[in-house]
Each structure stands twice: as structure tokens, then as C-alpha cells.
Design a protein that fits this description.
Rossmann fold, Arc Repressor Mutant, subunit A, 20 helices, 487 residues, Helicase, Ruva Protein, domain 3, 49% helix, mainly alpha, 3-stranded antiparallel sheet, 12 strands, 10% strand
Length: 487
């Protein structure tokens, strides 16, 4: 690795959303730039005008910003560099490293079909490279359409890949590829090399689906007399079925996970461990600062990684549990307001209560969105009883009604509304009535929350407060009385 600061880039095409694979590539480049004191640059490869959209460009910006991946210089738009792309192609023509090809698409297709019919692969035969100079000039003067082809030299093209070590391609297997279309626009490989040279990129780290492009790009660097960057090709990301990650596996856009309640720090942590390992024993749950400190190309893995949504949710739960409670509140407040439970002003007025409730709920969920339905019962006056919870915990309403009444009276007699005396008095009541504490606590939980599971029973009563807790027990008594009357 060069001792001078690295210049790395992320170069997405704005033809769709920011895919998690692209986000992982951007993250690795960003981490290495931050680790080495280098620069992380962003280039939008918008030369495909038919498919590139402003909406996709915005999605890329928003996705990177959400993940916390800031770029260091102005964004480069590839389409704005057309003049340079053409000028570089002209340089290659002038030095004899490229030539004009006047073969039409129909002619090429006919030759390709003939080669396939003969059981071989089509290779351009360089017939236009053999044209005399005066004939080339005549055709250009007459306005004949042509593309510019790169003349692939003999020999091999090799590089030491950061992930896959030494890779070699025989040049005989590389056709004289087009670098400039007949309309004067550049082909991908030529535009990329021209831009990377102009941006001073010293390390190209991207997906290993680009490995076959790399020998062509190296040949172009050499032909243009530019210093070669290092190359590193990251393995693909697969779904849990072992196949390349796609929409059939569910959400694959970074923006989708943002709206599914995933925290950006959890997504970053999860993506970082897809194709990279710090080595040795390490904590899986890592902050961005820890990732920067630990990141090294030595830890890049050769095998494909598996995108497991369940593991991402687990990771999210870990980060959610570590988040400052004020930040949790900032993220969940708009959700409960949108659900119609309360207002932002109400939560601000009851900030301490709201933070206490969030502390109880966040350890029980993996996604931010899951907090919202769990929080509902703490805002509503009336309890909605889960039928399964009622069926399991209120099996004998005739016996349970008096027990809950005694529970309410015991709680109402407490001089202070605190967890320790609540628990002591209710345990004493259970012993007095000759029932196990579970036979008292679980039916009481349903009375208070409508659910068979909840945060700690006494924590629930503290959050609900004395009046609401007693009122809910009284309401449960009435429901039980109705069940008895109904037979």
C-alpha cells in the first residue's frame, strides 16, 4: 500500500436505488479513506442518459448521508466529462493505440452468427485496422460512421488484487474493445479510466463482478501513460439461499431498511462484517469509530457473504439498546405521534415519563417500529385484551374476580407508589390466598396491559401510575364478572 494518502471513490450509476451491495462497497472505501487519512470521493456515472434519473441520484445521496458516509470533494458527474473522454480517445488514436472501425452493427452481427454456427466464439478480426490511412481519411471525410476500438497488445495483463492476490488475463482472450461509440460517447471502461486518472484515484475497490473489466482498464491506463491504481475486488453478497442478493430475498435498497426501523449505525456495522473481518477475537457490535480503527484490507474475505435479515435485526437490537435514550425518543416520538397516540407537546411535557417508558420497551424489540404497538396501551385509557392472553390467564373468572379485587385493595392501601412495597405486599397476598405468585402476577399483567407479556409488572404499574393501574384492575374485575354472568 502506498505511503501517501489514498484517494478512493464510490462510483454508482443513478439508474435505481442504492443497493446494499453498493452501500457495502461505499462503506469499505470510506472506512479505508478515514483509516489512512485519505480522501473518499463520489462520482455519479450518469452517461446512460436513457436510464439515469434525478430521483436515483437523490436516493444515492440520501442513502450515503443516512449511513454517515460523507465525501470529501465535490461530486463528479461523469456525463460532464464527455470532452475529456473524447480527447483521451483522440490521444490513443494519435499514438496508434486505437483505431477507427467502420464495420456496421449488421455486418458484425452477421460475422458473429457465422462464428457461432461454426462452433467458435466471435473475435473481431481487425480488418479496419488494416485500412490504408488515405482510405480512413476518405471515409471520415465522407461522413461514414465509425467507432473507436482499442488495439489490445500481445502478452498478458496481471495485477496483485487486494482480495484475490495475483490475477492474470491472457490478452489474446480480450477482443479489441470499443472505447468510443459512433455518436462520440464513451464506453464504460474508457470513461471510468479517464475519470479515475483525472480524479487521481490511487485505489479502486469494487465488486468482483468487475474483475473482467480490470485488464481492459489496466491496458487503457498504460496506453494513456498514467500510473496504475491498486485494485481490490470484493466478493458478492448472497441471500440466505446462497444465490446473488436480489429483490426475491426481500428489501435490497438501503432506503427500505431506513423505513423499516433499522438504525444507520446497525446497518453500517452489519455491512462492514459482510466480506471483512477484524481478525482474532472481536466484538460483533462495533461503533463507526471502532470500525475505522479496526479496518484493514488484510481482513477482506474472498468468499461471498450472506445477507441474513434476522442477523441484521439482531444487530439493530444491540445498537438500539446502546443508543442514548434521548436519541431513541427523537426517533420514536414522530412514530407514536403519527400513530395518533399523543402529541409531541404532550411527550415533551412528560419527557421523564416518556424516557422511562422507552427504556422499558426498547430492550424488548429489535426494530424501532416495534416499539409503537407496544407503547399503545400506555397512552390509551381503556385496555384492549388479547384473546389468547385472556384464554390462558383468565381461565377461572369466578375465582379470579375476587383475587383481583383483593389485589386492587392491597395496592390502593399502599402509602407510596413504589416497586418494592408493591411486590412485598402482593407476594404476601398470594401466600395469604394460598396461590403461587404466578397465579396472581400473570392475570394482573393481563388486567394492566391486555397482554400476556410486558416489561416487569411493577415497572408497568410505575409507568401507568396509581390511578390508572387501579382503574384498569377495577375494569378487569367488571369484565370477569361479565364472563361469570355469561356462563
Amino acid at each position: 500500500m502506498s505511503a501517501s494518502p489514498l484517494r478512493l471513490r464510490f462510483a454508482p450509476s443513478p439508474t435505481g436505488y442504492l443497493h446494499v451491495g453498493g452501500a457495502r462497497t461505499a462503506l469499505f472505501n470510506w472506512l479505508l479513506a478515514r483509516k489512512t487519512g485519505g480522501k473518499f470521493l463520489l462520482r455519479i456515472e450518469d452517461t446512460d442518459k436513457a436510464r439515469s434519473t434525478d430521483e436515483s441520484t437523490r436516493a444515492i445521496f440520501e442513502g450515503l448521508t443516512w449511513l454517515g458516509l460523507d465525501w470529501d470533494e465535490e461530486v463528479v458527474f461523469q456525463g460532464a466529462n464527455l470532452d475529456r473522454h473524447r480527447a483521451d480517445a483522440e490521444r490513443l488514436l494519435a499514438t496508434g493505440k486505437a483505431y477507427r472501425c467502420f464495420c456496421t452493427a449488421e455486418e458484425l452481427q452477421t460475422r458473429r452468427a457465422a462464428a457461432e454456427a461454426a462452433g467458435g466464439a466471435f473475435v473481431y478480426d481487425r480488418r479496419c485496422d488494416a485500412l490504408p490511412k488515405d482510405e480512413i481519411a476518405r471515409r471520415v471525410e465522407a461522413g461514414h460512421a465509425f467507432v473507436v476500438r482499442f488495439r489490445v497488445p500481445a502478452g498478458d495483463t496481471s495485477w496483485d488484487d487486494l482480495v484475490h492476490e495475483r490475477i492474470t488475463f491472457p490478452n489474446k482472450d480480450i477482443d479489441d474493445f470499443v472505447i468510443l461509440r459512433s455518436d462520440g460517447t464513451p464506453i464504460y471502461n474508457h470513461a471510468v479510466v479517464s475519470d479515475d486518472i483525472a480524479m487521481g484515484i490511487t485505489l479502486v475497490m469494487r465488486g468482483d463482478d468487475h474483475i473482467s473489466n480490470t485488464p481492459k482498464q489496466i491496458l487503457l491506463y498504460e496506453a494513456l501513460g498514467a500510473a496504475l491504481p491498486r485494485f481490490g475486488h470484493l466478493p458478492m453478497i448472497h441471500g440466505t439461499d446462497g444465490k446473488k442478493l436480489s429483490k426475491r430475498h426481500g428489501a435490497t435498497a438501503v432506503g427500505d431498511y431506513q423505513h423499516l426501523g433499522i438504525l444507520p449505525q446497525a446497518m453500517v456495522n452489519f455491512l462492514a462484517l459482510l466480506g471483512w473481518s477484524p481478525g482474532g477475537e472481536f466484538e460483533e457490535v462495533m461503533t463507526m469509530e471502532r470500525l475505522v480503527a479496526a479496518f484493514s484490507t488484510d481482513g477482506l474475505l474472498r468468499k461471498a457473504s450472506v445477507f441474513d435479515p434476522k442477523k441484521l435485526e439482531w444487530m439493530n437490537g444491540q445498537h438500539l439498546a446502546r443508543l442514548p435514550i434521548a436519541e431513541v425518543a427523537a426517533r420514536v416520538t414522530p412514530l407514536v405521534v403519527a400513530a395518533g397516540y399523543t402529541t409531541e407537546a404532550d411527550l415533551e411535557a412528560r419527557r421523564e415519563w416518556w424516557h422511562t417508558l422507552l427504556e422499558l420497551l426498547r430492550v424488548r424489540v429489535r426494530l424501532l417500529d416495534e416499539i409503537v404497538p407496544m407503547a399503545e396501551t400506555y397512552f390509551r385509557e381503556a385496555v384492549t385484551y388479547d384473546p389468547d392472553a385472556v384464554a390462558k390467564q383468565w381461565k377461572d373468572p369466578a375465582a379470579l374476580g375476587p383475587l383481583l379485587a383483593a389485589t386492587r385493595e392491597t395496592l390502593a392501601a399502599l402509602p407510596t407508589w413504589e416497586a418494592a412495597p408493591m411486590e412485598a405486599q402482593l407476594r404476601a397476598l398470594a401466600e395469604q390466598k394460598g396461590v403461587g405468585t404466578g397465579k396472581l402476577f400473570q392475570p394482573l399483567r393481563v388486567a394492566l396491559t391486555g397482554q400476556a407479556t410486558s416489561p416487569g409488572l411493577f415497572d408497568v404499574m410505575l409507568v401507568l401510575g396509581r390511578e390508572r393501574s387501579l382503574a384498569r384492575v377495577r375494569a378487569a374485575e367488571q369484565v370477569l364478572a361479565g364472563m361469570v354472568a355469561a356462563g
